[in-house]
Amino acid sequence: MDIITICRDKLPNFKEKIQIFYTEHLHLDEEIRYILDGSGYFDIRDKDDRWIRISMEKGDMITLPAGIYHRFTLDEKNYVKAMRLFVGEPVWTAYNRPAEHFSARKQYVKFLEQTV
Q1: Under which EC number(s) is this enzyme classified (predicted)?
Q2: Which domain holds residue 75?
């Protein structure tokens, strides 16, 4: 685990990082976040490819499966402190959409097809 603080004073290259976080992407590993302080939004796609906005605040935790398209943004407070949980060495590589060729994406789409 590690802790990330996302705000102008704490995150180097704040504007660029916020743009990267907000660009729709996926990861090849699960993404687990526990909000320690502040707030923000995770946007994910439903199985009909529509956006769902998830409001996150102190005490909330989210697990995004490998292969799910998502993005993150701050709310009007422009501050969040989050614990990032992972197994083994963290891999922060984000693959911007489209990224359909990855096996993690194919497995996630197959999972969606099985749900009714």
Answers
A1: 1.13.11.54
A2: 2-114
Domain CATH number, residue 76: 2.60.120.10
* 3-class DSSP string for 56-71: EECCCEEEECCCCCEE
**Total domain count for the chain?**
1
Distance CA 76, CA 41 (A): 11
d(CA 57, CA 41): 9
What global pTM score does this model have?
0.93
